[in-house]
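Exercise: predict the fold of this chain.
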Amino acid sequence: EVQLVESGGGLVQPGVSLRLSCAASGFAFSEEWMYWVRQAPLEGLEWVGRIHGDGRHSEYADSVKGRFTISRDNAKNTVYLQMTSLKPEDTAVYYCYVGWGGRHPVRGQGTQVTVSS
């Protein structure tokens, strides 16, 4: 069974950094793109970025480019989202996904990030 478990969210002030983690199991982790997607209150899902299975290539939404970095540790089956210079508009539930855009996407339970002074 594919499982994804996000952690690391919290309430932070604008301008600070936060790192989210997503522990994966039940599939060949190193062979899959991994995605971060967020959902702000009363909004739809917003694709944040993705990272290739080998960790060498990543892509980001314009809204987070230059502030967020996705990385992964294939030995630990874990993908990370390093967020810097956080803004109130980054407030959302953050999900990691495998298979985003495919026939059977799977996501974790999500972790709440709230950016507020």
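Check your answer against the key: The two ends are 40 Å apart (CA to CA).
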